[in-house]
Design a protein that fits this description.
Elements (H helix, E strand, L loop, with lengths): L2 E7 L4 E8 L2 E10 L5 H5 L7 E5 L3 E2 L18 E4 L1 E2 L12 H7 L3 E4 L3 H11 L2 E7 L3 H9 L3 H13 L5 H5 L10 H10 L15 H5 L6 E5 L5 H9 L3 E5 L5 H6 L4 E4 L10 H12 L4 E4 L1 H9 L4 E17 L5 E12 L8 E7 L5 E6 L4 E4 L15 H13 L1
Parallel strand pairs: 3-4, 4-6, 5-7, 6-8, 10-11, 10-12, 12-13, 13-18
Antiparallel strand pairs: 1-2, 1-9, 2-8, 3-9, 14-15, 14-16, 16-17, 17-18
Length: 405
C-alpha cells in the first residue's frame, strides 16, 4: 500500500497515484461505474471479467467487506481504481477491509488519482484498454522506466491496444453456485434485512408465504453465463425451485430437467461471440418454454431471434440508470452493467421494444409476441441498486403460470 502506481491508457495518457491491494502489472478494458454504493457487489459481479473498474464515487470501502453480499465466489475484474479508500471501515456487518480483499484475490488497486478526469476521458474517447502498474517488482520498475522512453512507451502501448477479452462466459460460469444458500437461509436473511419482493406499486411483500404463493411448484433452470447470486435469490423468494446449469449445457439437457421456465443470466463479454449458446437458445424458443433474460441473456435471446447487437461508446454501469417502460410511460431507476446493446431497429416483427434508456434511447427491454419470453438489459435483482423493477420476477412467475394453465 502507498507504493507508486499508475494506469496507462491505450491513447498514451498516464494517471499516476498510489497502489493498494496487490502489486504487479495487468492489462484490461478500462470502464467506469457511477454507483454510490454496492462496491462489494460490483467487485464480485462476473460481468466485469477482463475489465479495470473505475468508481466515480470518491470514497470506497467505508462499510468494509461483507461476504454475504458477494455476487460470486471471487473478484472477476482485472483491476480497481478509486479516488480514495477507507482503511478502517465501520459497519456492524463488516468482516474485513477492501485493501486486504483485493490482496486476497490478487487484484491490483490504484488510488489517489483524479477519477473524474479519467471518467471524462473514457466518456469522451470511449472505452479503451489500459495497463495498471503498481509496486517495485522488477516487472513494474521496468514498465515505469519504459514510460520515460518514447520508443519503449510505444511498444507498451501496442501491447495494451492488442489486449482482448477472451473466453469470458466460460471463465465465469457457475462462480455464483459456490456461494449458493438454501432456500430457508435466503428467506431468513430476506426477512432480517427487509430484502423482500417488491410489487409494481413499490410495496414490499413482508409475508413470505404470500411472496412464495404464486411460484410454488415451479421449476426454473438458471442458465448461468456469469450469473449474479441475487438472481437465484429473487426466484427462491417467490417460491420457485431453481436448478443452475453451466454455459455449455445443451437445450436437450435443459428439456430433460422438465423446467417450467428458463432464466438467461447476465454475464461478461461480447454477446456475438457465444455462437453455440445462441444456437441452443433458439431451440428453447422453438419449444416455447417461458424465458426471462437479463443483461447478456437479454442480448443473446435477441440474437437468437434475429436481432443485432453493437458495442456502446462507454456502456451503462451504475445504480442510477433511468429506463422508460413504453406500455405505461413510467420511468424507473435501474441498476446496469453492460457495454453492448441490442440495436433498436434490428428487432424482428414478433419482438416489441418494452423499455428504453431515457438518456440515449437504447434498447432496455424486449417482449416477444410469438413465444412466452421477455428480457431486460438492466438488473431487476438490484444488488446493489434500486428495487424499482423487482416486479419483473413476478411477471416471470405469472408467465410460467399462464403457460401451464
Amino acid at each position: 500500500m502507498n507504493s507508486r502506481a499508475c494506469i496507462v491508457l491505450a491513447n498514451g495518457q498516464v494517471f499516476e497515484g498510489k497502489g493498494f491491494g496487490a502489486s504487479g502489472c495487468i492489462t484490461g478494458e478500462a470502464v467506469f461505474t457511477t454507483g454510490m454504493t454496492g462496491y462489494i457487489e460490483t467487485l464480485t459481479d462476473p460481468s466485469y471479467f477482463g475489465q479495470i473498474i473505475t468508481q466515480t464515487f470518491p470514497l470506497i470501502g467505508n462499510y468494509g467487506v461483507i461476504k454475504h453480499d458477494f455476487e460470486s465466489e471471487k473478484i472477476h475484474a482485472r483491476g480497481y481504481i478509486v479516488r480514495s479508500f477507507c482503511e478502517e471501515p465501520s459497519n456492524f456487518r463488516c468482516e474485513g477491509d477492501i485493501d486486504s480483499f483485493l490482496k486476497s484475490n490478487n487484484i491490483i488497486g490504484l488510488y489517489g488519482i483524479d477519477t473524474r478526469r479519467l471518467t471524462k476521458v473514457l466518456r469522451e474517447s470511449g472505452v479503451m484498454n489500459g495497463r495498471l502498474i503498481s509496486g517495485d517488482s522488477p516487472e513494474a520498475l521496468k514498465e515505469f522506466a519504459a514510460l520515460e522512453n518514447p520508443a519503449e512507451k510505444e511498444k507498451l502501448l501496442a501491447e495494451i491496444k492488442a489486449y482482448t477479452i477472451k473466453d469470458a462466459v466460460k471463465s465465469v460460469t457457475k462462480s455464483a453456485t459456490k456461494i449458493e444458500e438454501s432456500a430457508s437461509d435466503v428467506f431468513k436473511s430476506s426477512a432480517e434485512y427487509r430484502a423482500v419482493p417488491v410489487t409494481k406499486d413499490g410495496l414490499k411483500i413482508n409475508d413470505s408465504e404470500e411472496a412464495m404463493k404464486a411460484g410454488k411448484g415451479k421449476k426454473v433452470v438458471l442458465w448461468d453465463f456469469g450469473a449474479k447470486a441475487n438472481i437465484r435469490r429473487e426466484l427462491l423468494k417467490r417460491g420457485a425451485e431453481v436448478v443452475t446449469v453451466g454455459c455449455d449445457t445443451t437445450a436437450e439437457q435443459i428439456f430433460a430437467l422438465n423446467p417450467d421456465g428458463v432464466m438467461l443470466s447476465n454475464g461478461p463479454g461480447d454477446p456475438q461471440e457465444n455462437v453455440s449458446i445462441i444456437s441452443e437458445i433458439k431451440k428453447i424458443c422453438e419449444a416455447k418454454v417461458p424465458v426471462f433474460g437479463i443483461c447478456l441473456g437479454h442480448q443473446m435471446l435477441a440474437l437468437a431471434r434475429g436481432a443485432h447487437t453493437s458495442k456502446l461508446r462507454y456502456g451503462h454501469r451504475g445504480g442510477n440508470q433511468p429506463v422508460k417502460q413504453l406500455s405505461t410511460g413510467r420511468v424507473y431507476i435501474s441498476s446496469q452493467n453492460h457495454g453492448y446493446a441490442v440495436d433498436n431497429d434490428s428487432l424482428p416483427s414478433d419482438a416489441k421494444l418494452s423499455f428504453v434508456n431515457t438518456n440515449d434511447g437504447t434498447c432496455e427491454g424486449i417482449t416477444y409476441t410469438d413465444i412466452p419470453a421477455f428480457s431486460v438489459q438492466f438488473h431487476p435483482e438490484a444488488a446493489g441498486g434500486p428495487l424499482d423493477t423487482n416486479f419483473l420476477f413476478d411477471d416471470f412467475i405469472s408467465l410460467m403460470n399462464n403457460q401451464s394453465a
